[in-house]
Design a protein that fits this description.
4 copies of one chain form a homotetramer. Chain A has 10 helices and 14 strands. By secondary structure, chain A is an alpha/beta fold. The interface between A and C is medium-sized, with 31 and 31 residues.
Chain lengths: ~350, ~350, ~350, ~350
């Protein structure tokens, strides 16, 4: 009991922040000690976020308690700024924003159009995708939690890329539920109004999206190369939660069979608690509210292409659940602790 | 051709305003001559509202052309203010806002908490519900277009109230799609964010809603009384268009049969082009995009209550379509002109 | 460990059955030992219901293991038939179907149009709503789990009825997500096709619904009377999970204040783990995936009516969660065990 | 008046059939004379399809009237069988099913796994996509209306393929609303149940879909080749209407600019009444209920790929509206007659 870890959540009122609180509230080895917000500072948490009715903490503007571990789900830029003094002071941290995902400050600026607010921390940061990086996460003090799209995309392609099944040249066509736009998005753009998002599909970021360099960086590493050709097109579709990524890449050997590909994938993810290779194409609803990522690879023999579909809940495996999985590794706890729920279906 | 009426639409960028433009663009006897907006002023209409791609007019901040007829879909208060000089100058008008629905300035202030900006026009204004008021509309120069909820509620209860089938004591439980909140609503309240409206239902206005006095005023008139007891509870449900009103009232004679009620309703609405009594309970989707209001009355013999359900498209019969129907009457045109489309289903 | 209770789930492939499995899989004091299905018999559970991926049991056509406790979510009629031999043999049971909710075989036949298949068990069955019936549930061997609509309706009205705040004369206007129609509904009626349910609202059961006598029976008991006047109109709205009930009843003393009503409700539900009186109107999404029922009472002073809104997740507090809460009471376990999850939001 | 064309609609109760009736009812030069159904034969049309309330015709099992022009929206195989005697007898026809889209009987069998029921008609059939085939359609007596996915895909790629901007090697990632599955789909598969389609995305046809050879055939023709490499992956997303196709192809000259591509597209579709090149990425809702196809081409300079997104309403430009456009051409009527409605938005 005395060993329970005291947690701080920066920006608890956003969708990722409140999802973190929901998950951590049932985690047996931690206690939520401090939560921050911006416009909601001064309220009690249940006033601002009613479904967290029994986490009766004040929302403060900065992390007030002496916490042992902190999560930030602030927007990019603000997040590193808020985390830097804590991390410098020895608090372990998971950044759910994009600030530590790109390895270089220059790359960060190219992707996000702002100067990096804490470049001295970039070297300490470890990319938090356990399926490809587990041991480094366990020893890290600062984790860059993957973006929701990169999480789905990299998990879809990692087995093929690392084993050389495909060339380093991928097209990723991703479909996301609208919670991915964040809660604050609403005040700036009527496209998130229910009346305009419902019964509607759109592509965005066609001239460049911040998640493209993140995906390319990680696929290049997996492929043992300096760079990877990646075309990435995200879409918004009328649902709340869920990401579905459809990935295309040329097979190195065009005669590779579906069976061979599926065997490679099964082997790559054997034993993974949350990433499963399925026997038939998965659907996002099979992951809602759970920390699962489901992956189904196949082959288009007409064109010699690998096709992989993957799906996950963008707020769980794509954000808060992944962050808790990383925390468990960093704290030496069982990796699945607090993340055992099955998907909510239908 | 020379007789074509030149139309102005004030606040064309809102949901009711753009729906007006959509309908009037195919109306053979009018031409849209001037459209106004607030933040979009200065743009061409198709830039601000892309589905109106071939109505290539500039959006101005006030009605610039010498128009013959004007519609306003500004918010309450602002609407009467914008209309007053035009109406005073002899332009016929339909107000889609609430400003001329309540007959007295005091009643308006009680319902909407603002002083009426043009009380001198209240006497000229006619409540624009043709099913109960057709001849007065034909001779009017200023029409108060009914609220979307009152439209569905009054059409549901008018036959029973006017024929004395029920006491003047109604409960109206109404369910609305989220376009009813208006386009501007988005910036003020995250509840209209798709992620929060989807998979959600809520009741609002439980401590009083501006449409309650409008409904009570009209039902009292129909019942030949000074007042009517009306409980009105609106709900938001996760769909874009549509209102569904479920209305309950005590039968004057509790032994009245379903058949007798249905016969009364059939007779009341015989010949109505847009309000139909159905043989089985209707669904909102049967009205989407059309100017129909569907009404189904029945009886709960256990409790001696009349139950009536009604539905319509809140942006058509509940707003822009009703406004065009009123315009047709005011201009001496066939009442259904420009409103002939069937519902879009599924 | 040796005391772990072995559970059987009859008809695990329906929505309530699979929700039971989802909840019980994380319950520390039970183990799922046997699951049955109809058309899916012969498959493994994860093949038929993929989100239950790690409950690797065969689906059989009857309960095969020697189970200690059984749940049935078969359709009405079939459920009592399947349960009777087990209950007669000493297995404790919760019936999620309607078969033991109406106290008399005649009442059952009037409501469901079939002869009761096990009338000898009616006297042993206890209505499983702990908020009004806790001690009797603890001692029972056969529980009639409430219907989803009655659950929301009775919890909304019980405090007012039992304390005499209102007359025994209620109108209940209920809105349900479409999972309430059940999984099997799809093959019989295209109205459940996404294309026809989406962007649509409808009322049904206008000429009588099986849940009306259940509500009337329980409200009458609470009011110390033989009968209660109840008008009940259910609606289907385009969402998957959630019930929202809006209830209207005449105040015994029309001058009763909102504050007095809210105080009565707060007192009535003080200490309840799952039924909460809220300070502002609740929304269904605040309950999704959780066992909460949220209740908000208010007063319409114009008409002297009580208005109460309530909401819950129809598959959890309205079905499987309520069933587990009942099981916990019957087994002497902590009432909230296995039901601690917060709602999934957004 | 005497020249009005008498129309037959085979299988009017499906989604494409009822959409045809909705459009044709307002067409000034035709009259619906006969409608057929399968299980609904014997009913009046408004009983079976209530939104067609004023088309009061009997539903028969075969086309009974002596019609001048017939549409079929039967399933594949059954459609050609029903059309053959009519076409042989001199009635002009548009087949909305897939039966005449693939030019050879062998290709048809490979794609649809059934023998072609009327191979003698294959040579007379013309592929009904006016943007690439207008003059041949005008002279045809039997039209193969394009599939909904091919319509969006071919219109997205035709300008690039015909002008040699890209190699004949395309990936088409398409997203469809669920009405595309057809009304009959419901009885066979619970995946179309609202509760299972809502908040869900899935890919299907991963091992081959009947629309792939149709797309490949037409792109090959446009590119002046015998064959084209085409990977086609369709997805179902939770909306009723709309198709969104995201298409990827390698640029012949990787340095081709976005501006050059957009100019090529603008020129290709200049003057087209229904297919428009947009200045920013379009959304499906801009086409709902209209006969528009919106196309936006751009370039991924990192990878030298063309990316084109296109969208349309699958039941209008993707089925019934396209069929009426073809009919207008075949009858020598103005191409846009009856198809002038703007999209219903929001």
């Amino acid at each position: 009991m005395t060993a329970v870890t005291k947690i701080g959540i920066i920006n608890v009122t956003g969708y990722a922040g409140s999802e973190l609180a929901r998950i951590l509230r049932n985690h047996p080895e931690v206690t939520i000690a401090s939560v921050t917000g911006r416009s909601a500072a001064g309220q009690r948490l249940p006033e601002a976020v009613p479904h967290l009715w029994d986490i009766d903490l004040p929302i403060t503007s900065t992390v007030e308690e002496s916490v042992d571990f902190v999560f930030s789900s602030l927007p990019s830029g603000a997040s590193a700024e808020a985390l830097a003094p804590l991390v410098d002071g020895g608090v372990k941290a998971v950044d759910i924003a994009a600030d530590f995902r790109i390895r270089s400050a220059e790359g960060f600026k190219a992707a996000y159009k702002i100067d990096h607010p804490a470049p001295h921390l970039l070297k300490r940061a470890v990319y938090g995708l356990p399926e490809i990086n587990r041991s480094r996460i366990s020893g890290a003090s600062l984790i860059a939690n993957p973006g929701c799209y990169p999480e789905a995309s990299i998990l879809a392609l990692a087995p093929a890329v690392q084993t050389g099944l495909v060339e380093l040249d991928a097209i990723i066509d991703a479909k996301s539920g609208i919670s991915g736009a964040g809660r604050g998005s609403i005040t700036s753009n009527p496209m998130y109004h229910f009346a305009e998002s419902n019964e509607n599909v759109l592509a965005y970021g066609l001239e460049g999206h911040g998640h493209q360099p993140e995906i390319a960086q990680e696929l290049a590493s997996l492929g043992g190369s300096d760079s990877a050709k990646v075309t990435f097109v995200p879409h918004l579709i009328p649902m709340t939660r869920g990401i579905f990524a459809t990935c295309y890449a040329p097979l190195t050997d065009p005669s590779t069979t579906r069976e061979a590909v599926q065997a490679t994938y099964q082997e790559f993810y054997a034993g993974e608690p949350f990433t499963h290779v399925t026997a038939s194409p998965p659907r996002t609803k099979q992951t809602t509210g759970s920390n699962l990522c489901l992956v189904y690879p196949t082959v288009d023999p007409r064109t010699g292409r690998l096709i992989v579909v993957s799906c996950l809940d963008n707020l769980v495996k794509g954000a808060a659940g992944q962050a808790v999985q990383n925390m468990n590794l960093m704290l030496g706890l069982p990796e699945t602790m607090g993340l055992e729920s099955l998907a909510l279906w239908p």
